[in-house]
């Protein structure tokens, strides 16, 4: 099989490693790729959000399968263009990717499908925002209505800060901002592969959204992750498939927006059961970096089965025993304006997954984005995996780098609890 993978991040490097390891893959092309992906694939230039350019590249490399990593190309219609060129694509159409691209659309679909989620108000101006904040009370949750890579959300007890974020979201477009009820409970990322009808869940994972230890500071794209979740209720996956995934997929089919690809369910496990915080239309980053090292099912065949509507015929997923932990190394300044160009050393070890890295003029590896790389460890249990991830992290250095020291710590200590 000839595979074209679109994207440049840590998720894409992890996908590339698994695709390259699948014996069915005879050619792997990544576009635009990063220095880590260059080790396992041929890199090509492309503007990932240009549907015609991606479809042309897929045709040129005679791809049997295109895998789209990030959300922006999906929202821009890249999967539609690839399918129109007669090539199988793992990734939803623009119509279905609105599930991630528009918080208001996502809420509308969830309400129609009776999917449990936070009550929310889409507000068109400051007065509506203020009324919604008072209706739901603190902690306040205010969300930008567009794509914001996880950074468009403010969760705060400070009403003035909530209003200020709403103003900032409203200002550039005079569009709308979403205010919602706060969901109390541990967060879980459950990824489901789907061809629009059949749904195959992966292991549940947990991501760490805040920049600082102890879940302090602003939200980021994700600072670390682990899987599986030793504390999760045993019925979690079945409950989410029944109450969230199947109703949602049905509603999308009914709206002519069949979802084919990876449905990312971001959930809060509340006292009233799992509720959806957000959907994403692609693999999560950095959860992918802990799930794929545990997955023993060959990845290309699995994604091809989903892309071609044959997921129901695919054998069940198989997983390695044990656990995986990944720790992100971010640039100084992230999640604000990251400082780039810092020299990185130690990043060629196995288990280092590249995100925002580049080669400087002299060939040295330098930082080129907010989240620079992550170090993944696996082990027979979470404690062993965590130790391995941090051991590897300690051997990768970058001036000014930021890293959380508590990824998976509460789970190892057994202090994560689901409210009842
Ligand atoms: P989102 O971009 O919607 O995923 O939000 C980013 C992060 O903000 C989530 O991962 C949560 O940590 C937090 N968050 C968003 N919405 C809520 C909510 N309704 N209740 C509690 N936390 C939330
Ligand atoms: N890990 C969060 C995300 O991928 O959006």
TrEMBL record:
Segments forming domain ATP-grasp: 107-308
Database matches in InterPro entries: ATP-grasp, ATP_grasp_subdomain_1, PreATP-grasp_dom_sf, PRibGlycinamid_synth_ATP-grasp, PRibGlycinamide_synth, PRibGlycinamide_synth_C-dom, PRibGlycinamide_synth_C_sf, PRibGlycinamide_synth_CS
Enzyme class: ligase
Pathway(s) per entry: Purine metabolism; IMP biosynthesis via de novo pathway; N(1)-(5-phospho-D-ribosyl)glycinamide from 5-phospho-alpha-D-ribose 1-diphosphate: step 2/2
Catalytic activity: 5-phospho-beta-D-ribosylamine + glycine + ATP = N(1)-(5-phospho-beta-D-ribosyl)glycinamide + ADP + phosphate + H(+)
Residue runs in coiled coils: none
Alphabetical UniProt keywords: ATP-binding, Ligase, Nucleotide-binding, Purine biosynthesis
Essential cofactor(s): Mn(2+); Mg(2+)
Cross-referenced SMART domains: GARS_A, GARS_C
Domain of life: Bacteria
Sequence similarity: Belongs to the GARS family.
Listed name of the protein: Phosphoribosylamine--glycine ligase
Record organism: Actinocatenispora sera
Taxonomy of the source species: Bacteria, Bacillati, Actinomycetota, Actinomycetes, Micromonosporales
Annotated gene: purD
């Amino acid at each position: 099989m000839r595979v074209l993978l679109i994207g440049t991040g840590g998720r894409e490097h992890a996908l590339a490693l698994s695709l390259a390891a699948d014996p069915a893959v005879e050619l792997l092309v990544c576009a635009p790729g990063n220095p880590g992906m260059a080790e396992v694939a041929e890199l090509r230039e492309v503007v990932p959000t240009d549907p015609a350019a991606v479809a042309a590249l897929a045709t040129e490399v005679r791809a049997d399968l295109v895998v789209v990593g990030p959300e922006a190309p999906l929202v821009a219609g890249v999967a539609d263009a690839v399918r129109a060129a007669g090539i199988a694509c793992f990734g939803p159409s623009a119509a279905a990717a609105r599930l991630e691209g528009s918080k208001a659309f996502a809420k509308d679909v969830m309400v129609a499908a009776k999917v449990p989620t936070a009550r929310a108000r889409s507000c068109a101006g400051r007065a509506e925002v203020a009324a919604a904040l008072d209706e739901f009370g603190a902690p306040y949750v205010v969300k930008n209505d567009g794509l914001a890579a996880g950074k468009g959300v403010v969760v705060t007890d400070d009403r003035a800060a909530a209003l200020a974020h709403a103003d900032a979201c409203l200002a550039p477009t005079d569009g709308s901002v979403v205010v919602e009820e706060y969901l109390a409970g541990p967060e879980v990322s459950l990824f489901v592969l789907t061809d629009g009808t059949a749904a195959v869940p992966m292991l549940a994972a947990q991501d760490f959204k805040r920049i600082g230890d102890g879940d302090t500071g602003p939200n980021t794209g994700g600072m670390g992750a682990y899987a599986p979740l030793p504390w999760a209720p045993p019925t979690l996956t079945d409950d989410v498939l029944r109450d969230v995934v199947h109703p949602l997929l049905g509603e999308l089919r009914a709206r002519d927006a069949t979802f084919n690809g990876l449905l990312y369910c971001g959930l809060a496990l509340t006292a009233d059961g799992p509720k959806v915080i957000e959907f994403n239309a692609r693999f999560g980053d950095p959860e992918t970096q802990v799930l794929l090292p545990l997955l023993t099912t060959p990845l290309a065949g699995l994604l091809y089965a989903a892309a071609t509507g044959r997921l129901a015929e695919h054998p069940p997923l198989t997983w390695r025993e044990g656990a995986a932990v990944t720790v992100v190394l971010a640039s100084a300044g992230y999640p604000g304006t990251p400082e780039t160009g810092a020299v990185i050393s130690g990043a060629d070890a196995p288990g280092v997954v590249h995100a925002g890295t580049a080669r400087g003029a002299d060939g040295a590896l330098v930082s080129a984005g907010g989240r620079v790389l992550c170090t993944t460890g696996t082990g027979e249990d979470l404690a062993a995996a965590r130790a391995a991830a941090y051991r590897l992290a300690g051997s990768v250095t970058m001036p000014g780098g930021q890293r959380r020291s508590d990824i998976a710590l509460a789970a190892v200590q057994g202090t994560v609890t689901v409210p009842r």
